[in-house]
Design a protein that fits this description.
binds zinc ion; 7-stranded mixed beta sheet; 277 residues; disordered N terminus; Rossmann fold; alpha/beta; 4-stranded antiparallel beta sheet
């Protein structure tokens, strides 16, 4: 579907600067468009306050139901903790020790687990309430700030993680340049984003919304394996590997077969990617 010219004026492509685009999805009044010049898919008309701290304060208060408190053994909590355990298990295989930075660490659940597993940890989080929670509850170092406009710290990291964070930036390429400079030589960058080519994304539209990916109030950039690979290589990273993390708990193990099949054709719900400096 081609967008009429009147719709093509709000935000140009953050990767190549072109404003020649076509409408790919519409969600409520949001327009997700594809750049005709470079193929990048982005939200053309974000809320002006999208990156504001206030928006993310609300994000975390809305997410309180999933707040996975360690002393809360509800099924939601167990599901959330299962995700964090799978992630740390993966990282331990890649780099068993070192300095780990999590961008968008929220309330610090994953970061606390990394610290318990021996990593020297640091977080960066835009929402000050969530950052304070992480500092007070888990005694982890968290800086409040927005990667898009903050100065990079002097310290260098062995591994930087972005779990469902890169899609929240206006200009993911400039963030990747910064992250490259924040890594030690041969350091690792681990990114997980919703997959634009996934079945869930393909089925998402006005009436059938996939909050995990098609969430334009917060999601400003959208990735396929190829578009993610392109900007990672462009920002200097190398040795890109597509990883698979099976987040399904034991009682849903039947999902694993479906997941493996979707993964083989790059249509799994999420892209988990590892690159090196
Ligand atoms: Zn472009």
């Amino acid at each position: 579907m081609i967008a009429p010219a009147s719709e093509i004026s709000i935000r140009s492509c953050s990767i190549c600067g072109s404003n020649n685009c076509s409408l790919k999805y519409r969600v409520d009044h949001f327009r997700i468009v594809k750049c005709r010049n470079c193929g990048f898919v982005y939200l053309q008309n974000p809320h002006t306050v999208t990156a504001d701290e206030a928006t993310y304060q609300e994000y975390f208060s809305n997410a309180a139901a999933m707040a996975a408190l360690p002393d809360n053994d509800s099924s939601i909590s167990a599901t959330a903790w299962n995700i964090y355990y799978r992630r740390i298990d993966l990282i331990k295989k890649i780099k068993p020790v070192g300095r780990l930075l999590e961008i968008g660490c929220g309330r610090g659940y994953f970061l606390s687990l990394a610290q318990k597993n021996g990593y020297s940890v640091q977080g960066i989080e835009i929402a000050s309430d969530a950052a304070r929670y992480a500092r007070e509850k888990f005694k982890v170092k968290v800086q409040t700030g927005n990667m898009e406009n903050m100065q990079i710290p002097a310290v260098r990291y062995d591994i930087i993680t972005l779990w469902h964070v890169l899609e929240h930036f206006y200009d993911p390429l400039s963030v990747l340049y910064k992250l490259y400079n924040m890594l030690e030589e041969n350091g690792y960058l681990l990114i997980e984003v919703p997959n634009l080519n996934s079945i869930k994304f393909r089925l998402a539209n006005d009436g059938n919304r996939w909050v995990g990916g098609n969430h334009p109030r917060y999601h400003l950039s959208f990735f396929t394996f190829n578009s993610l690979a392109r900007i990672l290589l462009h920002s200097g990273f190398r040795n890109m590997k597509l990883l698979t993390i099976d987040y399904s708990s034991a009682r849903y193990s039947g999902k694993s077969l479906v997941k493996k099949a979707l993964y083989k054709v790059n249509m799994d719900s999420f892209l988990t990617v590892l690159v090196r400096k």
